[in-house]
Each structure stands twice: as structure tokens, then as C-alpha cells.
Amino acid sequence: MSKQTDNKQFWQRWASCYGPLMQSSEPLYAAIAQQMQPHLTPEMNVLELACGSGQLSFRLSRLVRDWEATDFSPKMIAQAKLKPRGAGLHFSVQDATSLPYADETFDAVLIANALHIMPRPEKALAEIYRVLKPGGQLFAPTFVHGEVPRTRLRMLAMRCAGLQIYNSWMVPQYLAFLQAGGFAVQEHALLGDTLAPLCYARAVPDKTRVTQR
User: Fold this and answer.
1) pLDDT tens digit string along 17-67?
2) Does the pLDDT value for residue 90 go beyond 90?
3) Within 13 Å, how many C-alpha atoms sit on residue 185's CB side?
């Protein structure tokens, strides 16, 4: 898929200033981390997809044994590698829709604020399902489309900046998407504000199901 249709060009262009821009979203990242922390343990092996420059990676990796943080933008990963990090945190360039890891490798997978801007999010979900161990956990906080005009204006502004939004899910639609991919949603919560509502979802794979790929 070309850079023009998978948003890679956008993230390459904005990589150097993404971290400073995201400082205004610090309360939202803190809220996501607060939701996740009770479910992370020191023996866990975690894969993060679409990590950006590490907004959640640095915050949460200290809680687990190994944290593999990945993004499809080389410049985003280069920015993340500029910061000091612990021995258990690793950054690499990977495509979330075609992962190099063996089946049932990870205790948990995190993909934050990315599924809605992927042209084929079901492919990423299928890969997550494949690499998660039975009983593993998916953490998938994702922006959802609000019901107020301001939210629609925000999405229009993002498109004008060059970021293509492929799925304007409402909360029930987003949860149904996860369920269709073979995941049982254990909990969800609406975070953020009416301008940028985010649905935090924690789910587990149902390894007895045959899902559509």
C-alpha cells in the first residue's frame, strides 16, 4: 500500500514535532495508563503497535519484563530512540498488518489511537489475535466519533492537514469491530472530552472462535 493511502507520509512529516505537540494530551495519556496499570505485571512480554515516539512506551514499560514498541514510521522510531530508556524497552520499525513474530508470543498487545486511521484495521486486528497468547490481553484505546459538531470540525481539520481517517466509529460500532475480530471485550470506558472522545477497551482473544481474516 502506498504512503499516500496508509498515512505513513503524514507521520514521517510530523515525527520531529509530534512529541512536543502531544504534551497537551498528557492528561489523556495519563488516563490511558491508569486504566492499563492494574493489568500489567512484572513477568509480562508486551507488544506495542503504532507507538509513535513513545508516549505510552516510556510510561508503562517499567511495569513489565519486556516491551516491544513498534511503529511503521522510521522517523517516529528514530525520535523515540533519542530518549534514554530502560533495558526492557525496545523500539523497531514494524507494519502492524504484517508482523514478524511467531504465533502466541505476547502476553499483551497495545495499539493506541491507530485503528481508526488504518485503511485495513481488520488486518492489524487479525495479527494481534495471532501473536497473543491464549488468555492474553488487547489494550486498544481508540478515538471515536463524537456526536457534536465540534468533533466533526476537528476531524475535518485533521484531514486538511493530511491525515486520512478511515473509520468514524461510535462506541458501540467500535466494540462490535473488536468482537467481530474474535475478541471478547472485558471493559471499556470513555475518556477525553467531547472534542476528542476516546474509547478505552480491554479485550481478550477467544481462541476457540474461527474469525474472518
Assistant:
1) 666 666 667 889 999 999 999 999 999 999 999 999 899 999 999 999 999
2) yes
3) 19
What does the pLDDT read at residue 158?
59
Q: Which residues pair with 141 in a beta bridge?
A: none
CA-based nearest residue to 10, from 156, 143, 163: 163
Report whether CATH 3.40.50.620 matches the domain 3-205: no
C-alpha closest to that of 167 among 110, 95, 113, 118 = 118
78 and 56 Cβ atoms separated by less than 8 Å: no
Mean pLDDT of 154-182: 81
Q: Tell me the domain boundaries of the chain.
A: 3-205
Instruction: Summarize pLDDT for 92-111 with one digit per residue, the tens.
Output: 999 999 999 999 999 999 99
Q: Residue 47's closest CA among 87, 105, 86?
A: 105
Cα dist. 96→11, 24, 37, 51, 137 in Å? 15, 26, 23, 11, 16
Distance CA(186)–CA(201), nearest Å, equals 8
Strands 89-93 and 132-139: unpaired
Distance between CA atoms of 112 and 6, rounded to whole angstroms?
16
Find out whether 158 and 165 touch, Cβ atoms under 8 Å.
Answer: yes
End-to-end CA distance of the chain: 18
